[in-house]
Amino acid sequence: MNILIIGGAGYIGSHVTREFLDNGHSCTVYDNLSSGLRENLFSQAEFIHGDIHDYCSLLEVMKNKKGFDAIIHLAASKAAGESMLNPQKYSRNNICGTINILNAACESGIKNIVFSSSAAVYGEPQYLPIDEKHPTVPENFYGFTKLEIERILSWYCKLKNIRYASLRYFNAAGYDVKGRIKGLEQNPANLIPIIMETACGIRKEMKIFGDDYDTQDGSCIRDYIHVNDLASGHVIALDYIIKNNKSIVVNLGSETGSSVKEVLDITRNETGKPIPCKIAERRPGDPAKLTASASLAFELLGWKAKHSDMKTIIKTSWNVYK
Ligand code: UFG
After folding, report:
1. For residues 17, 18, 21 and 26, what is the CA-based torsion angle, rounded to 10 degrees?
2. What's the CA dihedral at 105, 146, 290, 309 to 10 degrees?
3. How far is 12 from 31, CA to CA, in rounded Å?
4. Is residue 289 in contact with ligand 1, taking CB distance under 6 Å?
5. Helix, strand, coil proportions of the chain in percent (round to 5)?
6. What is the dihedral sign for C-alpha 51, 53, 59, 60?
7. pLDDT for residue 18
8. Is the CB–ligand 1 distance for residue 290 below 6 Å?
9. Is 142 a catalytic residue?
């Protein structure tokens, strides 16, 4: 198939592009390189330097290119903390940007969309593991934008026959197990890249945000999902919505939880680095524990995490950072 991957030069987007190429698809990456990197591009995929706010450019690409069968939409701002300080940026990039993409898709007759959603749509967990029936009450503006987009998608599905897969990612982590992707995220806000930067000496020390949570070791537990597993989920989800002529909303998670201290210990073991850290205040809005139920993804798509054990996540990350 001919696939347009919007945001394909980013951390997750580059892994997704690699996976579509590996599965024999023809890929075009559309990215404004605001956080994506040229070094994340592949010679086998055409690259278009373009912005999702440029409706004319989107339309021209979608109408005049090879006749795309599907759009994979990963272009977004993604720092939950920042979204609470600068909601305008998140409204514009996430909501307005997606509306441009959807309207251009409608105007050019592209019917299939895979959308990067997030576990942030659920908010504070009311039960664990979190399945797709869990209430959606986002705690931050970022999660709100993802939920709004899911709602818009469901209307476009009803009114314009758009088929979509909304993939609710848990904590994306790790790097390509075959070592083909090496672009480092700039100014990361997530735990594992921060631990990696501390292991390399880019940072002097890192902070553990709270060690008085109601968990075994007092630090927060998250469901880390290897980015190659996330990537395979996109390919399988696209096949599914096309074959079944149906839209889906599914979690992509590993169904296991690791605490901040566990991640730190495994990284110290794998890297041999001391990784200085100190206990800091709790970060506002952090639930003690988040784990996914991925049984719907397994039931519908036969998808299961294969590379998401913490050792593989840390080894593949260290491969790039060291
Ligand atoms: N943490 C630290 N120190 C740091 C950074 C993080 O202790 O320097 C802790 C956090 O408090 C949290 C855990 O590490 O307990 C993971 O934090 P991240 O910032 O890496 O990830 P979040 O769980 O906050 O959020 C991530 C994505 C969201 C997504 C969510 C889904 O950033 O977009 O996973 O579970 F919605």
Report:
1. 20
2. 30
3. 13
4. no
5. 40, 20, 40
6. negative
7. 98
8. yes
9. yes
Question: What CA–CA distances, in Å, run from 177 to 19, 114, 197, 298?
Answer: 12, 23, 19, 22
What does the pLDDT read at residue 65? 67
Strands 70-73, 2-6: pairing kind: parallel
Separation of CA 191 and ligand 1 centre (Å): 6
288-317 pLDDT tens trace = 999 999 999 999 999 999 999 999 999 999
Q: At what angle do helices 191-200 and 310-321 cross, to 10 degrees?
A: 50
What pLDDT, on the 0 to 100 scale, is given for residue 9? 98
H or E element at residue 208: strand 206-209
* 35 neighbors 53 (Cβ within 8 angstroms): no
pTM: 0.97
> Amino acid identity, residue 250?
V
Nearest protein Cα to ligand 1, atom 1: 191
Q: 20 by DSSP, 3-state: which?
A: helix
Q: For the chain, how many residues are written?
A: 322
Q: Which residue among 142, 164, 213, 240 is the active-site one? A: 142
Q: Please give the structure tokens belonging to residue 250.
A: 């599914």
Q: Please, is 4 exposed, middle or buried when counting C-beta atoms within 10 Å of its C-beta (0-12, 13-18, 19+)? A: buried
**CA separation (Å) from 317 to 174, 196, 201?**
5, 7, 15
**Residue 67 exposure: Cα atoms within 13 Å on the Cβ side:** 1
From ligand 1's centre to the CA of 32, what distance in Å?
Answer: 25
Between the CA of 189 and the centroid of ligand 1 the distance, in Å, is: 8
For residue 129, whether the previous peptide bond is cis, meaning omega lies within 30 degrees of 0, is yes
